[in-house]
Amino acid sequence: MAEPMHAPDPIKPTSATQAPAEGAARSRSARSKSGASSRVSAGVGGFSQATGYPEAVDRLINELARLPGIGRRSAERLALHLLKSESAVASSLASAIGGLKGAVRNCRVCFNLTEQALCAICADARRDRSVVMVVEQPRDVLALESTGAYRGLYHVLLGRLSPLDGIGPSDLTIPQLWERLDDAGRNAGGVAVGELILGLNPTMEGDGTSLYLSEQCRRRKVRVTRLARGLPTGGTMEFASKAVLADAIAERRGMMDESEASE
Q: Percent helix, strand and coil across the chain, each rounded to 5?
């Protein structure tokens, strides 16, 4: 009886014959991806394929979106507004931004923002130069000045201590603060500092900075105080946080103290 005939096994590609084909395929894929990425980044005819805007507009949107508080949508609206505005508006904005870094500097005494060697507060002889309030940022000075209740000087730290972020005393203006306390000539008008008010934000980093400053002032002949905390005027305890209520209890004052202060 004749044996059944078997179909020949299909020829399996060997590694020698398979490698060139796979290498060619990978090369074509790499060239295709590279070409696509270059077309997206460079755009076609000056347009960005990622956004559809001209490259100049897309570049402006990207720069505006880097500003704090400005998202992509807000940056688009600002860029399109400038595009529709007259050339004088865009030129005026560009000139203001260009002159910002060259004209504005930190006061050489308190490090507030100014266009002169001394800020308007340090240059005002009517201020009580023996009292210095320490704050974190120049915007804190503006907030306190808007009250009209403080007539002393300031010292802006330009930040707060944050060991986790690697921010130490030398990264702030704390060394310059010690110079003002130790040498009256480094303070505005050459007046010795008699009281240091800690006006930092009531946050974990702000409280840590206040604690560090108060400890360092122990060996100096200067009175150290801090801003009072507690319930705001017109507020209700129902909506106050636990921290605010705790500060209000700790910072309580006698009724006679308040009446004497008003007199």
A: 50, 10, 35
Which residue from 97, 102, 140 is spatially nearest to 121, judged by alpha carbons? 140
- CA nearest neighbour of 128 among 147, 153, 146, 145: 153
Architecture of domain 113-255: 3-Layer(aba) Sandwich (3.40)
Greatest Cα pair distance in the chain = 131
Exposure string (b/e) for 243-259, b if CB count within 10 Å is 16 or more? Answer: ebeebbeeeeeeeeeee
pTM of the model: 0.70
The separation between the first and the last C-alpha atoms of the chain, rounded to the nearest angstrom, is 131
pLDDT tens digits for range 95-116: 999 888 889 999 999 999 999 9
Q: Among 15-19, 62-66, 177-181, where is mean pLDDT lowest?
A: 15-19
For residues 109 and 20, the model is more confident at 109
